[in-house]
Write a structure and sequence with these properties.
The protein is mainly α and 181 residues long. The chain has 9 helices and no strands.
């Protein structure tokens, strides 16, 4: 392993990514939102939160330089997890290409839904990607509602806070089913 001095940006990226991962691990997504508590379900939530964060970083010239290293951190984490699950050195690159295609497709779909401001677009993207369903059910509607609230919260987050790695998402337990219907 090549040792290098960690930069302040490395610590910022670790804090941002750590917050994303902590949010994805909240049990409420798997119990109340009915996201499958599987490798695939967790991947989908990780992509959703990574995409929301990348969207916010890309929207601010001061924060834009954090986007690529955050994506690199996301990729390193996926690579590490694949290897822990027993994927061979020859299999990892192929899997990573699939993950990258999935990430960029989902990020684009989420961005289009959020930019259009049409909840039905977000619901359809979440239903298709997270739940593998052609039409939104209650879990997809609630998760899409959460995603819209999270995007607004991130948009309101001060650039100075994000540049220090201070990221927060709304508490998914506080998003009621009725509000998502």
């Amino acid at each position: 392993m090549i040792w290098r001095r960690r930069s302040p940006q490395d610590a910022t990226i670790d804090r941002l990514y750590g917050t994303i991962v902590a949010q994805v691990r909240l049990p409420v997504f798997y119990t109340d939102y009915n996201v499958a508590d599987t490798v695939e379900g967790r991947f989908e939530l990780l992509v959703l939160h990574q995409a929301l964060t990348a969207r916010r970083l890309a929207g601010d010239p001061m924060l834009r330089p954090l986007g690529p290293p955050l994506f690199d951190r996301f990729c390193r984490d996926l690579d590490h997890n694949l290897r822990e699950m027993g994927v061979t050195d020859l299999g990892v690159p192929k899997k990573m290409q699939g993950f990258a295609a999935a990430y960029f497709g989902r990020a684009r779909a989420y961005e289009q839904g959020l930019s259009a401001g049409v909840s039905a677009d977000c619901e359809a993207a979440v239903a298709r990607n997270v739940f593998g369903q052609p039409a939104p059910g209650p879990g997809a509607r609630r998760l899409a509602h959460y995603m819209c609230i999270a995007a607004r919260a991130l948009d309101d987050c001060a650039a100075s806070s994000l540049s220090r790695g201070e990221l927060s998402f709304p508490d998914p337990a506080t998003i009621p089913m009725a509000a998502a219907a």
